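Preliminary data (for renewal application), 3,4-dihydroxyphenylalanine complex.
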Amino acid sequence: MSLEQFQSELEALRTEAADAFSAAADAAALETARVEFLGAKSGRLKAVQKQLGKVPKEDKPAAGKSFNEAKGQIEAAFAAAEERLSSSGTDQDDAAPFDLTLPGPRLPLGHVHPLTQTIEELKDLMGRLGFTVATGPEIEDEWHNFEALNIPASHPARDPLENFYLSTAGVVAGKEGAPLLLRSQTSTVQIRVMESMPPPVRIISLGRVYRPDTADATHYPMFQQIEGLLVDRHATMADLKSVLRLFASSFLGGDVHIRFRPSFFPFTEPSVEVDMSWHDDQGNLRWIEMGGAGMVDPNVLGAVGYDPEEVTGFAFGLGVERVCARRHNVTDIREFYRNDVRFLHQF
Ligand code: DAH
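Predicted structure:
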């Protein structure tokens, strides 16, 4: 092979390689071109280098010099292409066209807590029975939490160890030095409503109550109650049962039954414990206690200035966590307060 032939082969390769490198549209194409021309084992430059042996001896120095020049130029062309691709990565012309009509990525949205869902549904359901929603403060005085509810000072329910009294040095002064506590029941709202309006009354109240109970599957030191109160001329225990039966079957399902067990609450006479039925995995009928109820005690009606000879009333107080847990087959009410999204996302 003559020197001229060798040089023209080199020149052809140099142009071809430079064209291939500058035509590469992305890193993968450039790499393919690199292997083709500059590959260490079977690259085309390597193949030309092998021809060097066939050039006449006296032309070898010139051929070697040409080879080194061409090699340098090919390598420079490759480096330039590499540089072009890395700096043009975000170049609009090279990037895949952006489709503005595609829907954006969906942002993870939170959703309503199961207890809040329950509260909303219960308001709705009781609203259809004519009960309007009333609210009261979570920090209460002893009159509304106990006294007016026929719970005298000597009653064990008033034990400081059974309640969250707000206290720094023994007793915190409320208005006129009266002790305050976190309400232990929503029955307080019964008193506040009756104090504020004449009968008839038909309200529910939903909210938090506080008791120093040890947390377990059915207890929590803060929980929610739904309180109901109806006062009218001829309210009876049968009305109470009808309302609670409707409540149970509407919220828990048509096949749910309720039963009353005789009990005692200072603010009702007679008083009952309210159980609702459910079927366990084996299909057995089971009962769960949802709360208390009864006919409003005449002393309570008297305390708010109603005439017990004129009106009667019924009241009930149920645990929202228990109702919600029964509805969704949750076996431990503490789950509602753990804020584990894996749990919460199921509702
Ligand atoms: N306040 C009671 C409690 O916390 C529940 C209750 C019982 C409420 C009877 C009532 C009622 O309105 O009539 O356990």
